[in-house]
# Entry
Amino acid sequence: MQFAAAFDWRFFLTALGLAFVLEGLPYFMLAERMPEVLRTLAERRPQTLRLMGLAAIALGLTVIAAAKR
# Structure
């Protein structure tokens, strides 16, 4: 059995664009504080950064699941 799903490029590009907007907001709104924030992140252990990334992924998936309902 072959599974072929149509890839929705419009939706993908919209989501990608939104991700760039959300990623850019802190740099735009808090430009003066970003060097301090980046230094603080650079001082964290890799395990801590991985946990922060995992938490962000879990939150994102939760928001997506809630939006799909």
Q: What stands out?
A: Residues 56 and 62 are 10 Å apart (CA to CA). Residues 10-68 form one domain.
